[in-house]
Structures are given as structure tokens and as C-alpha cells.
Amino acid sequence: MNVTTEVIFKAAALGASYMAVVLAAVGSALGIGAAGQAAIGAWKKCYQQGKSAQFLLLAMVSAPLSQTIYAVIQMMLMNDKIAKTPENMPAYVLIGIFGGLAQMASAYAQGKCAANGCVAFSETEKGFANYLMVLGIVETCAIFALIMAIMAMP
Questions:
Q1: What is the phi-psi region of residue 153: left when phi exceeds 0, alpha when psi lies from -120 to 50, beta otherwise?
Q2: Which CB contacts under 8 angstroms, 24+ apart, belong to 81-88?
Q3: How far is residue 145's CA from residue 113's CA, in Å, rounded to a whole number?
Q4: What pLDDT, on a 0 to 100 scale, did the predictor assign at position 20?
């Protein structure tokens, strides 16, 4: 492999590792946006009814952020391996993109679930642990995606 090809392979692989973070961050932003809108609406209703706003809603709103953290972990591990084996660029590109897409989907789904949890909890003030369990199940998909990305790295 000549120097030019190696540099191109390494750049493509590094770009793909960063793409995992970009995709996960987009999913986190969308998920947090959905949950945040629901929390703000729930707080508004509480204020209109003279009730105090539930601070616990922030736990649900922030849940989709973890997928971006998982993608950063994936990126750091990929970058370490890319430095050692840039010739595996096609595998790294696929792992970066598909790992990022999995994190993005998980973050968005978690945000949508969190949005409904915010509405339900604000209306009933019951079931918070149940809503968190649903978020935990969605979180498990993100953890599995990270583990599979790590296992797939050459």
C-alpha cells in the first residue's frame, strides 16, 4: 500500500468514526427535543393548575443524551484501532455509520417514550419508575449496538 492510499483509507475511517458521533448527536437532539417539549407543556399545565412542577421530568428529558456518549466511546475505540490497521477502512466505515444510525434511532425512540412519560407523570404523579423502566429498555438497544460495534471492529 502506498502512502497516498493509506492516508485516504485512514481519513475515510476516521471520518466514519466521527460520523457515529454526528448521527448519535442528531438522534439525541431530536429525542431530547421531543421529551423537552412534552416536559415544558406538562410544567405549563402544572403552573396553570397551581401545582408545583415536577423536577423529575428532567431525568426523562435527559435520557437520550447517553447515546451520544456511547458513540463517543465507539469513536475513541475506533480511532485507536484505525491508527493500527488503516487497511480495514471499509469495515470501519460501515461500523461507524451503522453504529451511529443505531444510536440515533435509539435516542429518538427514547425521547418519544420520555415525552409520553412526562405527560403521563405530570397528569397522574404516578408511575415514574415504570416510565424509567421503559426508557431503560430502549437504552439497552443502544448498549447492545455499542457492544456489537466493538465486537465487529477488526
A1: beta
A2: 81/153, 81/154, 82/10, 82/13, 82/14, 82/17, 83/10, 85/154, 86/6, 86/9, 86/10, 86/13, 87/1, 87/6, 87/9, 88/13, 88/154
A3: 19
A4: 95
Give 31's Cβ-side CA count (13 Å radius): 32
Classify residue 7 as exposed, middle or buried by CB count within 10 Å of its CB (0-12, 13-18, 19+): exposed
Among 80-89, 104-113, 127-136, 145-154, the least confident range:
80-89
Question: What pLDDT was estimated at residue 145?
Answer: 96
Write the pLDDT tens digit of every residue in 7-36: 888 888 889 899 999 999 999 999 999 999
Distance CA 143, CA 122 (A): 29
Query: Quick one: pLDDT at residue 71?
Result: 97
- Match 396553570 to its residue by C-alpha cell: 48
Q: What does the CA dihedral 46, 47, 50, 53 come to, rounded to 10 degrees? A: 60
Round to whole Å and give the CA distance between 108 and 135.
11
Q: Cα separation of 97 and 117, whole Å?
A: 30
